[in-house]
Amino acid sequence: MLRIWGRISSINVRKVVLCAQVLGIDFERIDAGLSFGVVNTPDYRSKNPNGLVPLLEDGDFTLWESNAIVRYLCAREGSALYPQDIRQRFDAERWMDWQQTELNPASGPAFKQWIRTPAEQRNPQVIAASVAATEPKFQQLDEHLARQPFMAGDALTMADIPIACEVHRWWGLPQPRPAWPHLERWYAHWLALPASRGVLDLPLS
Q1: Which of 150, 157, 152 is nearest to 183 (CA)?
Q2: Domains parsed from the chain with CATH numbers
């Protein structure tokens, strides 16, 4: 059985759990990080020297970095989520990298202010700057999904998983947002999947 270390409140842990559930893989998840501790113990650091979550254990093989774990699980299962066509595969890879390097850094500050910062300590300017940086990226996603049903073509691939977790986090914030009809259609598909339970239906924390 796979073991996933990390608290479900982490967007990066949610990616891995969502992926495993979509693939129908049995796994054990162990809380780690923030108030749960664990990540600074010598044993954990020997497996993930970064001291972050998630960490995947597959027998004697360990892997960290959430998007790498998603890729690994999809390839391990021989799933259609890991495209065999090289152009489609790297299209999916591109969007996964974009999530990490563009969307997540833009959206993270507003999340941390709204959810992880006491109300009396919140900085409205940080929230406003995060919104200004993030909304054009969701508009970009909406325009992309106007041209095709899913991130890398006509069916779900590994690329859709990190984006779904970003949408879950952004739409869970107590703030207004523009209408993005194509993104909303795409996300409704996710919410209808039984595999999204326990991930995309959870409140932020």
Answers
A1: 150
A2: 2-76 (3.40.30.10), 86-196 (1.20.1050.10)
